[in-house]
Amino acid sequence: MLCLFVIAFLLSWPTPVAPMYFYLTNQKPMCFIEEVPDVTMVKGTYRITGEKGKDYTAESIHVEITDPSNNQILSRTYTADGYFTFTSHQGGEYRICILAQSNSERSRVHLDFAVGENAINYGEVATKDRLNEFELRIRQLQDQIQSIAKDQNYQRIREEYFRQLSESTSHRVTYWSLGQLILLCGIGLWQMRHLRAFFQAKKLV
Fold this sequence. Notes:
Jelly Rolls; coiled coil; 4-stranded antiparallel beta sheet; Transmembrane emp24 domain-containing protein eca; elongated
């Protein structure tokens, strides 16, 4: 627990991260894969402009999200500048597709994903729960510790899955090799019997 607290404290120092941007062609969605632990909040903040930073060209943006089981958990239209959120109900890869609904042929999209405690607006939390600066800091550290614990648990589950997959593949390879060996032995015995019968028929043996 102390180790998690220390890690959370070190991770609490702010590090600047530049949001990515890409271009959307009208009526052609752009999709992303976000790997998320169980019961974790994800926030996508976006801003759509014209090419080279011109005025907005999109009237709205449509977001569709599917879970690891390929079930749609979100399908909603938003304004051209804002954010969307969802909370994972199972660990795995979530597919996030974005479609700009615009009269322009191409729009520039600035997008930034935040996962776990990074997706929480602590200003709103402090106002809602009436927390002072120290209490808010403790809340942030608690959320970070929970996020680290969830991520570690998710990684353990993934490691166990790949271990079982590796063992299953290894067993299949072993069985396949044994099957090939038995088949080759059977073919060899058949050829020997066939040649022996042939030589006997020719009275060579």
